[in-house]
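Hello forum,

I keep getting stuck at the same step: I have a sequence, I want structure tokens, and every attempt I make locally crashes halfway through. Rather than fight my setup again tonight, could one of you with a working pipeline run this one for me? It's a single chain of 342 residues.
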Amino acid sequence: MRLTAGLVLSLLVVTLGALALSEPVEAQRMRRARSSPRAVIWKDPGNITSRNLLYGPGSPEHAPVEPFRFIEEKKTGESPKFDVKDGRGVVWTVKLGDEAQAETVATRLVWAVGYFAEEAYYFDEARIENLPKLSRGREFVLTDGVVIGARFEPERKHLTEGPVWDWDDNPFRGTRQLNGLKVLMILLNNYDARKENNKIYYSRPSTTGRYEAHHYVSDLGATLGRSGGLGGKRTKNDLEAFLSTRFVMGIEDGAVEFDYDTRPTRLGHFSVLYPPYYRGEVKKEKSMRGIPVAHARWIGSLLSQLSDDQLRDAFRAAQYNDATMEGYVEALRTRITQLTQL
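Reply #2:
Ran it on my machine without issues. Output:
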């Protein structure tokens, strides 16, 4: 058969059309995978006794490396923050202040028992090239661009940030996995367990190809102090305050009563003038109530598998001094024992 110019052109159009259609089909498949991902809040951590709490969800290979070059300052949130790019080209958010150490520890404890947590690496000192005069956190900046007490959190390309999730409206309501995470927030005295800090990150495992919606509690810096409401004596990264609070108060109607109240108090009641914020603060505290004894005991059984040395590693990662580290480890062990003895 003789191929005329018209026939060749027709075949070319059909071929290109078929190729063009194949891309949207694949794109549609990917969109379907994204639109109906498998919701996951906890994964079996396996042998907890072998978990490395010195790096937690991170690793030596993924840790930030010098030099660090300033990108931009972030002006949201309570703590001073800015972005840098490290020697490998990875972008990191650097947080300064009281939350830096506490968050480094908290991420490791949450990760150790099977929950998702963001990587956190702590530096007593880090030199930042081209660091300008910051609008916040100048007290943590020494000469020549050196910052002290810095937590580095990476921007990972394999994770896509999704919406926030609600403690009371999610696919895991009533499960021991969700309630176990609530117990962890109480155990750490996290007074900032707001819905806005609950993030979903989409990840596609290489084995199945299906997207998963990983449910995180992010921004775990308001921990390891005294929980309380706006206007109260709440603190973070404060051993003395942490030791002054109780944990398990008792059992009522099959649920554990915890020493955890984050409702606004005193001058904090003026937040009622902004109803959305006030309602959010009250709702946050209510969400942590009604945890069944069996669920609290379950998370306690996982935490009890961590050795004191593993707990120490979490604090070593944040470079606590020995006395403070031992004080926290003893306090955490006491709280874990209270859970297992319910």
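Confidence is low (pLDDT under 50) at residues 11-21, 25-30. If your local run keeps crashing, start a new thread with the error log.
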